[in-house]
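Weekly modeling sync, notes
Attendees: S.R. (lead), two postdocs, one rotation student

Agenda item 3: backlog of single-chain predictions. S.R. asked that every request posted to the team notebook include the full sequence so nobody has to chase files. The rotation student volunteered to paste the first one in as an example of the format we agreed on. Action items at the bottom.

Example entry:
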Amino acid sequence: MAGDAAESFFEFTEAPAVSATSATLLEERGEAVTVLQGLTLEEGFYQINGQQVSRVDAEGSVSLPDLPQALDAAAAALVGEQLYVVGDHSLLKLDVGVATSAWAECAELPESAGTQAVLASQQGTLYLAGVGIAGTDTYAYDASQDAWTARAAAPQDLRGFVATACGNDHILYFNAGRADEAILAYHRTTDTWFAMGQLPRALQVLAVGSQGTEFTLFSAETTVTGEALLRPTKYGWVDDSVVAVLVCLLVGVGVYFSKKEKSSGDYFRGGQRIPWWAAGLTLFATGASLFS
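Predicted structure, as returned to the notebook:
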């Protein structure tokens, strides 16, 4: 089924559920944490059940080092080859690309992860949501600084949700506690939350994986794939005309003043006729433009 481009930010296709694996995910929901590696289950996924950690793919299951302690209501996310797990006040990581690696402790969470926190990664940064008394507190973890920072609170209780990255800036949140068609998005650069379209129908999402601007939702009865729509811009002949006028104006100004320059001092220092305050404002504007 394809979504209407005029009514959604995404285009959806729907396929029957992968029965055996989806049933397993449903049965273990609430006991095991599942982290997908890509768009399909065949690409493999990680599962954390108590202290036991394993990687599951088409060839079978491989056990990984156990967690040093069982974490209540854990949540997990993958950043490159680093598997992160949060629970209680702890954040642990494991380098899954090194066979001899062991779990390492990271900076303690600013507050308890609670009962049903949700963890997602975007551009190498972890985003923890669904914590706090109301389940709306959100934090970002910078691995390079080993530090947490508070982010904008979510507009609703996100306990029991699942999340995945989409594109370079968005994280999408889906309800895993009950059937729901809403898509909630968080934009990491602007630190804002907003509704971002709807699913083709209400789903209780068991697991979600993504790659680039595509994502796949797994439920007990269906598998839904979504892809972000690149909306056409309204750039037209008016915009071309404005750019052409500006270019001509710049060329004209350059030609006019070039005829008045008689030395390198005129070119670089304006013949020493520029007042100090004008030169200062120019330097300030140049420096500010680096951050704009």
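Discussion: group reviewed the output briefly. The chain has two domains: 10-228, 238-289.
Action items: rotation student to repeat for the remaining queue; S.R. to check formatting next week.
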